[in-house]
Specification:
seven-stranded mixed β-sheet, 176 residues, 14 strands
Amino acid sequence: MLTHFKEAIGTWVHAKDSAIADVPLGKVCDMVVNPDTAKIEAFWVKGNNGFKLLSPQNIVHWNQMELLIGEETDLVDPEGMPALRKILEHEVKIIGAPVYGKVYGKYLGKVRNFAFHTISPSIVSLRVESGWALFGARRIIPRSRIIDVKKNGIWISDQALETPTKDTKIGAENVS
């Protein structure tokens, strides 16, 4: 399923084998994104026991209302996921990150949302906005154009494709 970051935040997390039926364990409050691969490595879940991490592999079912996991022990403390230690130490926030063109170095705006697959789970595109609400620009940047993700910003390929001029007819043969 394709979803957006802002839609995923606040999703209730339930366990199939919960001690108390129909009582959520917490809510998704953020994501851990690997800056090298744009893959979502874990979800931060805020519950009664504080913040826990949930690996995407432990998600049994996900819809717009809830996220279902196998059991409560699928939510772990950060120390319980040693493979994520390096990523957590250099965690990069995607929402609010400035976006720049790699070739021209031009500031393009800030990331306001991003789309991702819940199955793979990886970022598919970024929604970048610049300027004021009525006078600003919105851009959808596909993952294929993202070149680098760092703490100080995201760099994308800003090379434009050559477009035909008015007097060039595409597909027409030159007849002299």
